[in-house]
C-alpha cells in the first residue's frame, strides 16, 4: 500500500514537473529584455492585467516592429490559419480534409487577387503606411526566427514560414469574403424561383419589406463639408470546416452630446463574428511622438480596424450590401471553352493550380473563368445541383487591388470628419458601416463600398443571363451617394446590418440585410432619454429582448386548439406572456425555438428537401422571412406536397406543437418548470485543433451558458435545429464603450482572452466576464500602465 501511495505521489509530481517544462518551452515572454535587429531605440512594452500590450516607442517603425513581435507571440497560430485560408493552403498543414476548402477559395480568386495586390504594393513608392507595415512584418518574422513557437506547430510536426505582405493581403481577402451570404442565398433563391413559382416567393422576404426598419440617411452639405464639420443638432458544410471565424454582422451606435449626461459623445461597438479560440480581435495600445492609439487588430494586420485616439473613435459593422452576382453562361456548341455573349463568342481562360496536401501527393485542378469571373459549379455544390451550365461569380472585391492597409492607417490618424471620409473611400469591398465620434462632438456613419449600378430589370438575388449584355452592371455610384448620416438632428447614428433608407439618388440599395429588430431597439432606447452615461448604456448593449418573437409565438398559440395544451399550461402561459427576453431562467425561449423549428420544417422541408431546408436556416432569409411565413394564413408553403390531402396552417402548427411538447418532455422532463433556457444553451469557443479529439478538451474554451437569442441587441446566435440544444456560434467579438468626457476610462471585453497561446495566463481569463456581462478597462493612462509587467526591446 505504501508503495502504491509513493508511486502515485511520484507520478503526481512528475506530471507537475513535466507540465512546467512544457510550459517553459512554449509560453510567451512578457517580461525581461530581448534584442531585435532593426530597432532604432529601446522600446518598452507593458502588459496590463489582461495581457494587452502598451507599446512606447521612439517612432512608428519601432512601434510597429514591437507590435508585430508581441502580436505573433500571442497569436502566431491564428495568423497561420488566416493566411492559409487566404492563400488556399490549409491542406498543406491540416491534411486532405481541407482540400475542398482550398479549392473553393482558389476558385473564388482570393489567392490570385492577393498576388495582384502585392504586385501593386511592390510597384508603389515609399509611404508611411508601407514602412509601418514592413516594420510590423519584420517584427512577426523576428518572433518566428527567435521566439518560442506555440505548441500547435509541434503537435502538427510543422514549422512556420516567414510572414509576407502577400500573407497580409490574403488575410484581407479572406475577411472580405466574410459571411458568404450571396453564395449561400442566391443559388437557393434561384432554385425556389425556378421550381416553386411566384406564390411561394411572395411569402418570403427576398427583398426588404416595408415593415422592416430602415437606417435613416442624413447627407452633409458638401460646401460646408469641405472644411471641418460643425456640430449640428453545403456551401455551409464546407465553410463549417474553416479553422477561422466568419464575420456575421455587428452593432454600433454613437450618441451626440445632446443626449449624454457628460455633454460629450458616447461611442459603442460590438462586432458579431463566429466564436473561436482565440477570438478574432487582438488589442494593442501604441504610443510614439505624434501618435497615441488604442486599437483592435486582426491577426497579421498591423493597423487597428476598430479603435480610438484621444481625438476620435472608429467602429465597424457589416454593410451587408449585395456585391456579388452570379451569371449563368451559355456555351458555344462547337467549343466548350467559349461562352455566348450577345452575338459573339468569348473565350474562357483556363489555369491549373496545384495544392500541396499534407502526407499526400499534390493535387492539381483547373479553374475556368468567363468574362464575368470564375466558374463555381465544382466548388459550390448547390450550384452544381441546380444547373449544368457554367455559373460565374462576379464579385466586386476581386475587380481591383485592395487598399485596405492604407485606409486603416489613415483612419487611425484622421484629424477631422473630412480626413476620416477620405480614408474610408479607399475601401472598395467588403461593404462596411464605419462609425465615428470625436471629442468636438461630431458623430457620423458612412456605408463604404463601391456600389455597382444595376439595370432596373435585374434581380440581383437570381442568377443572371451571362449571354445577355443588358444584364451587366452599368457603372458605379459616386461615393457621395452612398448611405451615410453626418451629425443628424436625431442626436445619434446607429447601424445593425439593416437596410439603409433611400439614397440621395432615389435608390433603395439591395443587400442581405437583417430586418432591423436590433436597430429598432437601439433607436427607441437611445431616443427615450438624454442623460446617457457609460454605465447606464451597458443595459442596452447587454439586452437580450426581441420584440418580434412574442408576436410569432402569439400567432402560433392562437392557431391551435387549446386541448393540446393540457398538462403543459405553465409553458404555454409563459410563452403567451413572453416579452421576448432570453433570460437564462426563462421557459418561453425553450418552447418557442423548438416549436418554430418544427413549424418551419413542416412547412418547407417537403418543397426544399432536407439539405436546402438546412441551407435556408443558414441564410438571412430565415430571420427576415419568418414572421411572414408564420403569420400568413393562405400560403402555399402550408400544404405538404408529399400527401394527397391539403394541409392547413392550423394542422401544421398543431403537429409541430405536439412534436415539440413530446420532445421537450423527453429532453428535460414532463414538468415544464424545468424547461429553463439555461439548460438548452451551450457555448464553447473552438480552437482550430479542437476539431480532433481529445485536443478539444485541451484547446477549446468552455463558457457558462449565455442568454442565446436571434436578433437581440446582445446577439448570441445559434443554428435552429430539431435537437433542442442550441450551440451558440456567433456573438460580440468585443464590447466597447467610450465616453469622450474621459477617454482613459473606456471599457471593453473579449469573449475568451487576449492570447491564443495555451500557456499564457491570458488564454481564457475573460471568458466568464464576457458571458456574465462584465467589462474591463482599455488603459491609456501612462502612470497606471508603467506600473505593469514590462518587456524591454533593445536594438
From TrEMBL:
CDD domains the record matches: Ntn_PGA_like (cd03747)
Domain of life: Bacteria
Cofactor binding, per record: Binds 1 Ca(2+) ion per dimer.
One Pfam short name: Penicil_amidase
Binding site for Ca(2+): 322, 325
Co-factor requirement: Ca(2+)
GO biological process terms held by the UniProt record: antibiotic biosynthetic process
Active-site residues (renumbered): 250 (nucleophile)
Keywords: Calcium, Hydrolase, Metal-binding, Zymogen
Family: Belongs to the peptidase S45 family.
Protein name stated in the entry: Penicillin amidase
Amino acid at each position: 500500500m505504501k508503495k502504491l501511495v509513493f508511486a502515485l505521489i511520484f507520478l503526481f509530481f512528475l506530471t507537475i514537473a513535466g507540465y512546467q517544462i512544457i510550459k517553459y518551452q512554449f509560453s510567451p515572454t512578457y517580461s525581461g529584455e530581448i534584442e531585435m535587429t532593426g530597432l532604432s531605440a529601446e522600446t518598452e512594452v507593458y502588459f496590463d492585467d489582461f495581457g494587452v500590450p502598451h507599446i512606447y516607442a521612439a517612432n512608428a517603425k519601432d512601434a510597429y516592429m514591437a507590435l508585430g513581435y508581441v502580436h505573433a507571440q500571442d497569436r502566431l497560430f491564428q495568423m497561420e490559419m488566416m493566411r492559409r485560408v487566404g492563400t488556399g493552403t490549409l491542406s498543406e498543414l491540416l491534411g486532405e480534409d481541407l482540400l475542398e476548402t482550398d479549392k473553393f477559395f482558389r476558385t473564388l480568386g482570393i489567392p490570385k487577387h492577393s498576388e495582384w495586390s502585392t504586385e501593386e504594393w511592390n510597384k508603389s513608392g515609399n509611404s508611411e503606411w508601407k514602412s509601418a507595415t514592413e516594420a510590423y512584418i519584420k517584427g512577426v518574422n523576428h518572433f518566428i526566427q527567435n521566439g518560442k513557437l506555440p505548441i500547435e506547430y509541434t503537435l502538427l510536426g510543422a514549422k512556420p514560414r516567414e510572414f509576407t505582405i502577400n500573407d497580409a493581403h490574403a488575410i484581407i481577402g479572406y475577411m472580405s469574403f466574410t459571411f458568404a451570404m450571396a453564395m449561400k442565398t442566391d443559388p437557393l433563391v434561384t432554385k425556389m424561383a425556378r421550381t416553386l413559382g411566384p406564390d411561394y416567393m411572395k411569402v418570403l422576404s427576398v427583398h426588404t419589406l416595408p415593415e422592416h426598419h430602415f437606417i435613416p440617411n442624413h447627407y452633409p452639405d458638401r460646401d460646408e463639408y469641405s472644411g471641418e464639420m460643425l456640430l449640428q443638432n453545403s456551401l455551409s458544410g464546407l465553410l463549417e470546416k474553416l479553422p477561422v471565424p466568419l464575420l456575421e454582422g455587428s452593432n454600433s451606435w454613437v450618441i451626440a452630446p445632446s443626449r449624454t449626461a457628460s455633454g460629450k459623445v458616447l461611442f459603442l461597438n460590438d462586432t458579431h463574428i463566429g466564436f473561436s479560440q482565440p477570438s478574432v480581435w487582438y488589442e494593442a495600445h501604441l504610443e510614439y511622438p505624434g501618435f497615441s492609439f488604442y486599437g483592435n487588430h486582426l491577426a497579421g494586420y498591423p493597423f487597428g480596424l476598430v479603435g480610438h485616439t484621444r481625438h476620435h473613435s472608429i467602429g465597424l459593422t457589416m454593410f451587408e450590401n449585395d456585391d456579388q452576382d452570379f451569371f449563368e453562361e451559355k456555351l458555344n456548341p462547337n467549343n466548350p471553352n467559349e461562352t455566348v455573349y450577345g452575338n459573339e463568342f468569348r473565350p474562357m481562360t483556363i489555369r491549373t493550380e496545384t495544392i500541396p496536401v499534407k502526407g499526400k501527393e499534390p493535387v492539381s485542378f483547373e479553374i475556368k473563368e468567363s468574362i464575368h469571373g470564375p466558374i463555381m459549379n465544382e466548388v459550390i455544390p448547390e450550384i452544381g445541383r441546380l444547373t449544368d451550365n457554367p455559373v460565374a461569380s462576379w464579385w466586386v472585391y476581386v475587380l481591383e487591388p485592395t487598399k485596405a492597409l492604407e485606409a486603416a492607417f489613415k483612419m487611425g490618424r484622421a484629424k477631422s470628419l473630412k480626413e476620416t471620409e477620405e480614408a474610408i473611400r479607399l475601401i472598395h469591398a467588403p461593404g462596411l458601416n464605419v462609425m465615428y465620434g470625436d471629442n468636438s462632438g461630431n458623430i457620423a456613419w458612412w456605408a463604404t463600398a463601391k456600389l455597382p449600378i444595376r439595370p432596373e430589370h435585374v434581380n440581383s438575388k437570381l442568377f443572371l443571363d451571362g449571354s445577355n449584355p443588358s444584364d451587366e452592371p452599368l457603372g458605379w455610384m459616386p461615393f457621395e451617394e452612398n448611405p451615410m448620416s453626418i451629425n443628424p438632428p436625431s442626436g445619434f447614428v446607429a447601424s445593425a446590418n439593416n437596410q439603409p433608407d433611400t439614397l440621395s439618388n432615389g435608390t433603395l440599395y439591395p443587400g442581405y440585410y437583417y430586418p432591423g429588430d436590433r436597430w429598432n431597439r437601439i433607436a427607441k432606447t437611445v431616443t427615450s432619454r438624454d442623460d446617457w452615461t457609460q454605465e447606464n448604456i451597458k443595459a442596452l448593449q447587454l439586452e437580450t429582448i426581441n420584440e418580434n418573437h412574442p408576436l410569432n409565438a402569439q400567432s402560433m398559440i392562437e392557431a391551435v386548439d387549446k386541448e393540446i395544451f393540457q398538462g403543459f399550461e405553465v409553458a404555454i402561459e409563459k410563452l403567451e406572456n413572453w416579452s421576448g427576453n432570453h433570460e437564462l431562467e426563462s421557459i418561453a425561449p425553450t418552447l418557442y425555438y423548438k416549436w418554430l423549428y418544427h413549424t418551419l420544417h413542416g412547412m418547407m422541408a417537403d418543397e426544399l428537401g432536407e439539405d436546402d431546408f438546412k441551407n435556408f436556416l443558414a441564410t438571412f432569409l430565415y430571420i427576415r422571412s419568418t414572421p411572414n411565413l408564420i403569420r400568413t394564413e393562405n400560403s402555399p408553403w402550408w400544404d405538404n406536397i408529399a400527401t394527397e390531402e391539403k394541409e392547413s396552417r392550423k394542422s401544421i402548427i398543431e403537429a409541430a406543437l405536439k412534436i415539440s411538447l413530446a420532445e421537450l418532455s423527453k429532453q428535460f422532463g414532463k414538468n415544464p418548470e424545468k424547461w429553463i433556457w439555461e439548460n438548452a444553451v451551450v457555448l464553447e469557443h473552438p480552437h482550430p485543433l479542437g476539431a480532433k479529439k481529445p485536443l478539444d478538451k485541451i484547446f477549446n474554451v468552455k463558457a457558462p451558458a449565455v442568454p442565446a437569442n436571434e436578433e437581440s441587441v446582445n446577439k448570441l446566435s445559434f443554428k435552429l435545429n430539431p435537437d433542442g440544444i442550441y450551440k451558440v456560434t456567433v456573438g460580440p467579438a468585443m464590447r466597447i464603450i467610450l465616453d469622450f468626457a474621459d477617454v482613459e476610462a473606456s471599457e471593453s471585453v473579449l469573449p475568451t482572452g487576449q492570447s491564443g497561446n495555451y500557456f499564457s495566463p491570458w488564454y481564457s481569463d475573460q471568458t466568464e466576464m464576457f458571458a456574465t456581462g462584465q467589462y474591463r478597462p482599455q488603459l491609456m493612462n501612462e502612470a497606471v500602465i508603467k506600473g505593469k509587467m514590462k518587456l524591454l526591446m533593445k536594438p
